[in-house]
Amino acid sequence: MLMNTTIAEVSGDLLLDVRNGLTKEGQKELPSKYLYDEVGSKLFEVISGLPEYGATRADERILHTHADEIVEHAPGDIAVAELGSGSGRKTRWILEALSRRRHTSYFPIEISATALAMCRRELSDMEAISIVGFEREYLDGLLEVAARRRDGQRILVLFLGSTIGNFDHPAEIRFLREIRMILDPQDFLLLGTDLEKPIPQLIVAYDDPLGVTAAFNLNLLVRINRELGADFDLTQFRHVARFNLATRGVEMHLRSTCDQVVRVPKADLCVRFLRDETIWTESSHKYAPEEVVQIAKEAGFHCEAQWIDGEWPFAESLLIAQ
Ligand code: AVI
Predict the structure, then answer these.
(1) What is the pTM of this model?
(2) Residue 12 has what pLDDT?
């Protein structure tokens, strides 16, 4: 239910996305990028350490174990651009391997100033690395890095943690193509993807018994209350994780436990929820290894090598721009 708009008074993507997402016919939704305010980013760090959520540790294990081998595929002068650096902890292994060869420039690209600061702090002891962070959207930051490329230098883009899995399929290919268009032939993309595993294992990874993922999801409503003056009552919503067989991904939802109306004053919006109706807040696609090779090809990359973790199925694929 949309009320008279005074949208010019309050700007920002959040407002527009909340309006569009909560007034959508059928399934209400909110983009998952809004999960990462300051509290959300910290909760995600906690999730990464939970025994039930193995993706981050698997990603880091592969990079730790195979960093030398990975950088052997990328000889010469390499500038590293990371899309969504997070804390920077995982990247250390790749940067160390490269810096044993020569002084290396590292460009973390992050929309979160908190994450960028964390990353700078984490890697500040690395002498053979110069760090220039960009507080930008991924592709804008990557354009900046490409504009600074030296003659003969190749770019290694890191897109780790299976963040690509949070895009829906058309958006995933579109995004990889956009990366490809910014790069030159023979540049690299190291892509981390969480792989398919038994559904019960996936569900508990996204609905942990400690309730950290539930807090991460519900915090989105706290953010909307704070930033848009909404009156979501957190006791009337529950975190839900479910597996979507058609898209082969885990979905997070927030389920309304009763019929209710929520006001979002800054968006001049009243939203009616039926009992058990949900807001879809995130999808996390799980890949087959050969599927990564295929989507890479569709986006203009050749998959040069792939490393798969033995403990928690997760793949690191080294792609070369064609
Ligand atoms: C950041 N992203 C890859 C995580 C994932 O697994 O999709 C976000 C997350 N959501 C719930 N737990 C973790």
Answers:
(1) 0.94
(2) 60
